[in-house]
Each structure stands twice: as C-alpha cells, then as structure tokens.
Amino acid sequence: MRHFLQYWKAIDFTEGDPLEHSASSQFKRVSGDDILWIVTVRNYRLKLLGSIVVDRKIGQRAAERKFRQKVYKAKFHVLGREGTIEGLHEIDIHQLTPRLRFESNNDRLRFEQGGRINGQQLQALRELTQTSADLLAAARNSKPEKRRTITSPTSPEGRKRKPSSFAKLKQAYDYALGMVGRTVIPAHHNYQVRLRRFLLARGVEANMEKNFVDVDFKLEGEHYIGEIKVTTYLTPQQAFRAAVGQVICLSSGYHT
Fold first, then answer.
1. Rg of the chain in Å (alpha carbons)
2. All structural domains of the chain with their residue ranges
3. How far, in Å, CA of 92 to CA of 184, rounded?
C-alpha cells in the first residue's frame, strides 16, 4: 500500500460529494489498495478534502460507461472501494504543512512570503511517507462528526436507494437548492462554457450563475432562464425533477 497526495482545484468539488472517483494522467504508479489523499488550496492555505481507497484503475471509456455520462478526460481513472467511500469535507491542515514529507529528493512543500502555499507545486502527484499519511489520517479522524461512509450512487445498491428525506436530498445536491457554499464540479462548469460560446456565436449574451440561475438571456424581447444539471449522485430522473422544480420557482415572467 502506498499513499499519494493529489491536488484538486477549489472549484472542482462540492461539500458532501462522495469521494468515489478521481482521474489523472499521472496515476500510472497507482494501483489497488493504494490511498489517495485529496487536498486543495484556498486562500493560500492547505486543506484536506478526504481520501480514496483505490479499488481499481480503469480507462476513460470504462469510466464513462460506469458513470453513464462524460467525465473528466484523463488516461487513468481510479474508483473508490465500496464500504470505504466517504463524503468530502474540507479541513484546514495548514499547520501540518511543514511536517509533510514525500518519497523524493524534493521531499517537502515550499512556503511563499507570509506562510502562503501556492497550489502549483501540488499539481504533480506525489507519494507521501507513511508518517505523513498518518498525520493526514489523524487530521481527518479529528472531525468524526463530519465523516460518514456512504453508498456509492453508481453501485447497484446506490442506484436503487433513494434519499430517505428531503434534508438528505438537499445535502446530497446542495447547489441545486441555492446554498451559499456552492462550488462547481468540472462537468457543470465546462457545459456552461460551451453553452455560453454557443449562444455568443449566435449573437446572444447570456448571464451565468446570477441570482442562483444557471443561465439567463434575452432573445427577441423575451427573457429566458435555464437550469443545468450534471451529477454523479442523483439519478437522471431526480436531477430532472430538481431542475424542473427550480425553474418553476424562478420562472415568473420568464420563458423556460
């Protein structure tokens, strides 16, 4: 078993997302039973998001078949082991940064002026020493109230199981309900970028992410709004119902 530190950009995730999958062209060294420790940098401080116990490594096409949609394009995809998958939770571990060590000559992270961490030095996948992995595990375990093992939504059990309450549905897909803490998953953002370009090419200027509306624009004197749903957690039917509900709530005076 080996431990690796992987960096995710701060816009690439949502609090509570299941840590069931990651992708990178740098996963050649990663194999089953290895552990990925997922980190990000926010306001120049190092944050731990959680860990993925690797079940197996697959390719791009196999990942798209499994998740039944387009996923981040990379040579390698790793899947988390069922029974170990937890919800993502951001924990500040900046104080641990000077103690983290890697299995290489360049064995530590560098601070910039004022004790800042630049995320660029984390973009390469790096193998952690066992002692450093133990430090991260202790930091993760220090927040037991935030940790919970969840059923992968792409497993047979997860596909059949529905959220048991509205609160759990809200937690699973919080950005669909307009929470302030929303962050954007890459597929959602990429679709917005493509849609904006599509509309601009036709002379339509669209607003994105304004007042909790994913897209709105005016065309021939009429005002239109739209909701974008890209998810690996909700089923397509649940995502569609959530989108319709949002549009109905927001659609007074609009075309949808």
1. 20
2. 3-159, 166-250
3. 20
Q: Which CATH class is domain 3-159?
A: alpha beta
Record the pTM: 0.60
For residue range 5-40, what is the model confidence (pLDDT) as tens digits? 999 988 777 888 889 999 999 999 999 999 999 999
Which of 127, 143, 115, 128 is closest to 46 using CA atoms? Answer: 115
The helix (H) or strand (E) run that includes residue 132 is helix 130-141
Predicted confidence (pLDDT) per residue in 122-165, tens digit? 999 999 999 999 999 999 887 654 555 554 444 544 444 444 44
Cα 60 to Cα 16, 22, 81, distances in angstroms: 25, 11, 18
Q: Which pairs from 27-31 meet CB under 8 Å and 24+ separation? A: 27/57, 27/74, 27/75, 27/76, 27/77, 27/78, 27/125, 28/75, 28/76, 29/2, 29/4, 29/125, 29/127, 30/2, 30/4, 30/54, 30/57, 30/76, 30/78, 30/125, 31/57
Tokens of residue 123, six digits? 């973009």
Residue count of the chain: 256
72: which 2 tokens?
């981040």
